[in-house]
Amino acid sequence: MIQPSNDASETTAVLRITQTTTNGEIRTVRLEGKLLAPWMNEVLAACGDFRSPLRVTRLDLSEVDFVDSDGVRFLHDLIREGVEIAACSAFVSELLHLKGP
Fold first, then answer.
1. pTM for the predicted model, two decimal places
2. pLDDT tens digit string along 20-54?
3. Is residue 5, in this structure, part of any structural domain at all?
4. How many domains does the chain have?
5. Which domain holds residue 36?
6. Helix, strand, or coil here: 93?
């Protein structure tokens, strides 16, 4: 679990990152908590080389309960780079415009 070292007067936001690999080809990165700008490098590192043709990277966002504006842009960038969204809450789906009109 990753926690920012904020000043004590700020609320501490937590993002848990869990990685699993299936059949050596599909990497799933599960995020739980709040996706904020300070965590983007950690998420990117967890995704690894998602551009590799031999590996699929999926993000499970079903337990993400908040995404800041930087996080939304970051997720859109990951999707454009080929990262798949395996699951997400209605909140995150709406932020990413994954639902039809």
1. 0.79
2. 888 878 889 999 999 999 999 999 988 876 666 55
3. no
4. 1
5. 15-95
6. helix
